[in-house]
Design goal:
There is one protein chain. With 576 residues, the chain is an alpha+beta fold. It is elongated. The chain contains 18 helices and 14 strands. A hairpin with a 2-residue loop joins β11 and β12. It has a domain of 197 residues: Sulfite Oxidase, Chain A, domain 2 (Alpha-Beta Complex), CATH 3.90.420. It has a five-stranded mixed sheet. Strands 7, 8, 11, 12 and 13 form a five-stranded antiparallel sheet that branches. The chain is 43% helix and 13% strand.
């Protein structure tokens, strides 16, 4: 690379050519604990743990009321008419077949990883909003302190540490690793779910979870009162679920699961910036909030389901789901204990393994879901917004360049700044700021998606990358463009990232020198920053120093396509 980069570009010695195979604790973001989760009600923040005594009081009241209701003649007649399972509901003849038991285990196995990795992702921006913007103070849920007003507070500053038993892997700002776990297991969970959907409707298992009569609702009420009164109803789950089970399973399988998938996809810039009004209404922050609530439903379901397995009949329930028999013996207990042991052991090992073998997690994740992200990069982002949509604040991120050369450029408004564009091109050029501003200017109002979870709309002005490419004319063997920054990263060496040629040719890919009608602020990348509207924010290099077209990025930096890819185990394809 040294023979292709002149002194006008980042010197080869200024790039960090190392890439640790595991988390480097000496340079990793130091721990920072947040605060107890809070929910905003009006202008007041309420600690969620206040829900515990209220829930206990509500439970005691519900038990007392249910026991009183059971003693009434009316409810005695009601139970006779609606004992729990709708009499008109068809029965399942196939019991609990092997395929159902295997899928039940994998669903449970995948879900624990998905939830833990999802919480780790949320910990990188531990705030949720119902608005399209992420203005501090407008969130409805948080487990971080209020944003300080006496200093620059970046989104990386806002990330918090989780316990290694809660988050995966539990380290602060380990979102790159968490996303590999989350997305990879999401894909496996989705495949398992599609097979499950096909098989339950191919067999008679759909009868267990799909209500076919309105009687399911009074039967569900009957069962709820019987459970709450601590007098459990007589059940026959081998061939038919009661009304409350049927409604709960139906919501989980046919509502919560699709909602989780849809709201996860809607958070992707490649999707949201392609689907127009749907992406504006169900914007990223609304999608994040719904996604969180759907996760909360799954947590509630898992805890309630687990409690009822033990409370109703551990022997009968384990026999059904882990042995596939209806027996008075303990045939299912050993398989149940083995399954729980596998889950507990893998959960205990997941965080230590991820920290010790971080590059393996990155590579396996890229193999599992990287091809999907590669497909999404082909989508040309088209969604634009109006000036009324511009966010009052975009969170800053990254460390601006330091030192006399940058300060000198800043003092004269970057009039002396030049942008080298070279490498595998027919016509290498050194563009001055005056030349860049004299080129056809493009303005666009688009939404920014940070990998950490926040988003915001801004107006960008600058030169379309395709115009620069028309001038320098990349050679046929140029596969990537590498964007080098004036700034250094946390692990030493200049920041950089790369893009495939198709991304650079998109209509909204821009070398921006203006933001919201004014010169680009220092915190947001002055003098130049990249805008690639189907990608996450870390791919949009700020403080651009130079551009190099290359055939491969294997010999650049640590060889993984970008600075965060080298050191924090991100993926270089990040449209999702």
């Amino acid at each position: 690379m040294a023979d292709r980069i002149s002194r006008a570009d980042p010197d080869a010695g200024e790039l960090n050519r190392t890439a640790d195979e595991r988390v480097n604790f000496r340079a990793w973001t130091p721990p920072q604990w947040g605060r107890t989760p809070e929910v905003r009600v009006g202008r007041r923040w309420i600690n969620v743990f206040w829900a515990a005594p209220f829930a206990l009081a509500a439970l005691l009241i519900m038990i007392a009321a249910s026991q009183a209701l059971r003693e009434t003649a009316w409810f005695a007649e009601f139970v006779k008419a609606y004992p729990g399972a709708p009499l008109a509901a068809p029965k399942v003849e196939s019991g609990f077949p092997a395929w159902l038991r295997v899928q039940h285990f994998f669903n449970m196995f995948f879900m624990f990883f998905i939830i833990r990795a999802g919480l780790q992702i949320l910990a990188d921006h531990p705030r949720l909003y119902w608005t399209k913007d992420c203005t501090p103070g407008t969130e409805w849920f948080r487990f971080q302190h209020p944003v300080p007003r006496d200093r620059v507070w970046t989104s990386k500053d806002d990330s918090v540490t989780l316990s290694k038993w809660v988050g995966l892997p539990g380290l602060r700002h380990s979102i790159g690793l968490a996303r590999w776990w989350h997305f990879s297991l999401d894909l496996l969970w989705l495949v398992n779910g599609v097979i499950f959907y096909a098989l339950i409707f191919y067999t008679d298992q759909w009868k267990r979870v799909v209500p076919v009569t309105w009687e399911v609702f009074p039967n569900a009420f009957s069962v709820a009162v019987q459970y709450a009164s601590l007098h459990f109803p007589t059940e026959s789950t081998w061939d038919r679920y009661n009304g409350l089970q049927q409604i709960t399973y139906f919501i989980t399988i046919f509502v919560a699961a699709p909602v989780s998938i849809a709201t996860g996809i809607l958070q992707a810039p490649a999707v949201s910036n392609k689907i127009g009004v749907i992406g504006k209404v169900l914007n990223r922050q609304v999608a994040r909030s719904i996604h969180f609530l759907s996760m909360f439903w799954f947590l509630f379901f898992i805890l309630a389901h687990g409690a009822m397995v033990f409370a109703t009949s551990l022997r009968e329930n384990t026999n059904h789901m882990f042995a596939g028999v209806q027996s008075k013996e303990w045939a299912g207990l050993v398989p149940f204990l083995i399954a729980m042991g596998i889950v507990l052991v893998t959960q205990a090992l997941a965080s230590p393994f991820t920290i010790r073998h971080s590059r393996v997690v990155q590579r396996v994740g890229a193999f599992t879901v990287g091809w999907i992200k590669g497909i999404a990069e082909w989508w040309d982002p088209t969604t634009r917004f109006t000036e009324a949509d511009i966010s009052p604040r975009l969170w800053p991120n990254g460390t601006p360049p330091k030192g006399e050369p940058y300060e000198t450029l800043l003092k004269n408004d970057f009039a002396d700044f030049t942008l080298p564009v070279r490498g595998l091109v027919e016509n290498p050029r050194l563009f001055t700021m005056a030349e860049l501003k004299a080129m056809p200017k493009q303005e666009q109002i688009t939404r920014h998606f940070c990998i950490q979870g926040w988003s915001g709309v801004a107006k960008w002005g600058g030169v379309p990358m395709r115009h620069i490419m028309d001038i320098v004319r990349p050679l046929p063997n140029a596969k990537f463009a590498v964007f080098y920054a004036l700034s250094s990263g946390d692990y030493g060496g200049l920041y950089y990232d790369s893009h495939e040629m198709k991304n650079l040719k998109h209509e909204l890919t821009l070398i921006a020198y203006e933001m919201n009608g004014k010169p680009l602020p220092v915190l947001h990348g002055a003098p130049l920053r990249l805008r690639v509207e189907n990608e996450l924010g870390f791919k949009m290099v700020k403080w651009i120093h130079s551009i190099e077209f290359v055939e491969s990025f294997d010999s650049i930096g640590g060889g993984h396509g970008g600075y965060h890819e080298d050191h924090e185990f991100y993926g270089y394809k990040m449209p999702i």
